[in-house]
Amino acid sequence: MGATGGKLTGAGGGGYLMLFVPEQHRYDVMRTLKLYKGRFERYHFTKGGIETWRINND
After folding, report:
1. I need a surface site. Which of 13, 24, 42, 43 has the fewest CB within 10 A?
2. Angle at 37 between CA 35 and CA 49, to 5 degrees
3. Half-sphere exposure (CA, 13 Å, Cβ side) for 6?
4. CA distance linking residue 45 with residue 58, whole number of Å
5. What's the number of domains the chain is made of?
6. How confident is the model at residue 51 (pLDDT cuts 50, 70, 90)?
């Protein structure tokens, strides 16, 4: 099992792939994406839209 939905956002070299992943599969998806140099950023929705911030994956 993995992500049950996703959305590509942005344009050019600065976009995001946002995934909806059931909590019990979150770390499996993160491990797999890391094999392909995936980076992870936390986000939350606000009245003004979506806000992101970086976390250290090292």
Report:
1. 13
2. 120
3. 8
4. 26
5. 1
6. low
